[in-house]
Structure formats: C-alpha cells, structure tokens
C-alpha cells in the first residue's frame, strides 16, 4: 500500500540498491517516473542503456547471477515503458497495476542483492493484422512485453516455454514474428529454434531472440537457419518495435 500513499515528488527508496523511485508529475494522461541510481548501476540509466554493449558491460555482476539480474532489470524496464503507454492511452487503472509491478520488482531486487557490496520515442503503431508470439518462462516479462506490443497495435499471443510455442505454431495461424527467450525449461530456445527451422511449413516465420545470453552462449546461429535478429536483455522496446516495423510481416 506504500505506492498508493505517495504524493507527487515523494520517493520510494530501495536502500540496498541505492535506487529511489519517484512519480515526478501527472498531467492528464501523461505521467513521468524518475529513477535515481548510482552511476555504477549503469543498466538503470537511460543514456547508458541506449548506448553500446561495451558501456552496459561496465557494471560487474558475478557470472552465476547475470541471467537473473538481466531478467529483473528487463522486467523493470518493460514495466516503465508499459506504464507510460497506458497513461498516454488514458488507462490509469491498468497503469497503476503496472506501477505496482515495477515497485514489487525493485523491492525483490533490493532484497536479493542488498547484502552484497558488489555493483550489480514511442514507436509507430503497427497494423492490428500483424501477429506476434511472445515466448518466455518469466510470467512478468512475458506479460509486460505482450502489453507493450498490444499498446502498439499488435495481435499478441504468449507461450511459457518452447513446448507451448511449438504447440501454438502447430494449432494456430502462424504469427508474423516469434519473440523468444533462450533459457527456458522443458524445451530451450536452442531446441525450439532447431525444430522451427526444421519444419518447412514454418519457413516464413521471423524469429527474434530476446535473451540475457549471447548467440554463442545459446549455441544458436544468426541468419535464415537460426535467429533472424538478436536483442539482449534488458530490452529496449522502442528498438525492437522499430526493427519489427521495418520488416515485411
């Protein structure tokens, strides 16, 4: 209930991360959120996040924790993006629910890494006839990304892992794009893409990876026999939407 009691310019502080969240202003359907973070927590800073891979990699995170950290940061970024789009669309109730998810994710990250001293342009709307399948075993990330795509005019379906994705492709009209995480239970991204590319009926499906791993780590090649495009978490939704809008659906 902390979020509901905050006034404009009052902060919600996550002391272990050195991060504070503040609702800067609400004017009609436009809301601005401010996130203050240490410089070494580069992934939360917009100017760094939109920069090069080299700039993002300056923040040290132990190898065994990197995948989980990237997923958490990806959820935070998607929540901020969806919140803003919902406010602009005049959906304050949905925006409030998204804001609560954002705070919850920051609280979770704050608790997880609090004991450690180690640093851890809206896109143009698409045509409603364009279909996309979002495949990710993390429910928060899956729902937030689906929400952003829906706000941009896409017809969106979701799957929780590779098996569900393959079942969907077998029983529905094929989507124009599949956005797929790589590390998933039951059927990994590697196995899923192998089976998609092995089925001639699915040859025209465009597959984008949205993953905290690299193509080399996932063992997946880029190109028509593998992944068409690779987007690293934390995801830049505007860059993804721009890339999708440039390709024929």
List the helices and strands and how they pair.
Layout lengths: L10 E4 L4 E9 L2 E7 L9 H4 L3 H4 L9 H23 L3 H22 L17 E5 L3 H13 L3 E5 L2 H10 L5 E4 L8 H9 L8 E6 L3 H4 L10 E4 L4 H10 L3
Parallel strand pairs: 4-5, 4-6, 6-7, 7-8
Antiparallel strand pairs: 1-2, 2-3
Mind telling me the CATH class of the largest domain? Answer: Alpha Beta
As laid out across the biggest beta sheet, the strand order is 5-4-6-7-8
Please give the domain count. 2
What's the number of helices?
9
User: Secondary-structure element order, as H and E?
Assistant: EEEHHHHEHEHEHEHEH
**Unreliable sequence segments:** 1-6, 42-62, 116-128
Major sheet characteristics: 5 strands, parallel
Report the radius of gyration as a whole number of Å: 18 Å
By DSSP, the count of extended strands is: 8
Estimate the mean pLDDT confidence.
75
CATH superfamily of the largest domain: Response regulator
Summing up helix and strand content along with how strands pair, one would put the structural category as alpha/beta
Can you describe this structure?
With 249 residues, the chain is of the alpha/beta class. It has 2 domains: 3-113, no CATH class; 131-246, Response regulator (Rossmann fold, 3-Layer(aba) Sandwich). It has helices at 46-49, 53-56, 66-88, 92-113, 139-151, 162-171, 189-197, 215-218, 237-246; strands at 11-14, 19-27, 30-36, 131-135, 155-159, 177-180, 206-211, 229-232. The strands form 2 sheets. A 5-stranded parallel sheet has the order 5-4-6-7-8. Strand 1 and strand 2 form a beta hairpin.
């Amino acid at each position: 209930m902390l979020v509901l009691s905050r006034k404009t310019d009052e902060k919600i502080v996550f002391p272990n991360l050195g991060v504070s969240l503040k609702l800067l202003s609400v004017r009609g359907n436009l809301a601005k959120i401010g996130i203050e973070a240490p410089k070494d927590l580069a992934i939360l800073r917009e100017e760094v996040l939109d920069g090069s891979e080299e700039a993002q990699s300056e923040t040290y995170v132990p190898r065994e924790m990197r995948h989980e950290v990237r997923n958490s940061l990806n959820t935070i970024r998607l929540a901020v993006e969806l919140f803003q789009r919902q406010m602009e669309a005049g959906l304050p109730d949905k925006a409030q629910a998204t804001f609560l998810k954002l705070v919850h994710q920051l609280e979770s990250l704050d608790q997880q890494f609090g004991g450690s001293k180690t640093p851890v342009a809206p896109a143009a709307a698409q045509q409603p006839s364009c279909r996309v399948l979002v495949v990710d075993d993390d429910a928060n990330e899956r729902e937030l990304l689906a929400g952003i795509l829906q706000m941009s005019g896409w017809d969106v379906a979701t799957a929780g892992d590779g098996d569900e994705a393959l079942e969907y492709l077998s029983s529905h009209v094929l989507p124009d794009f599949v956005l797929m995480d790589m590390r998933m239970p039951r059927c990994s991204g590697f196995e899923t893409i192998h089976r998609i590319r092995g089925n001639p009926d699915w040859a025209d499906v465009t597959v984008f990876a949205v993953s905290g791993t690299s193509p080399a780590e996932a063992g997946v090649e880029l190109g028509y026999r593998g992944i068409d495009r690779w987007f690293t978490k934390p995801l830049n939704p505007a860059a993804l939407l721009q890339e999708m809008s440039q390709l024929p659906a």
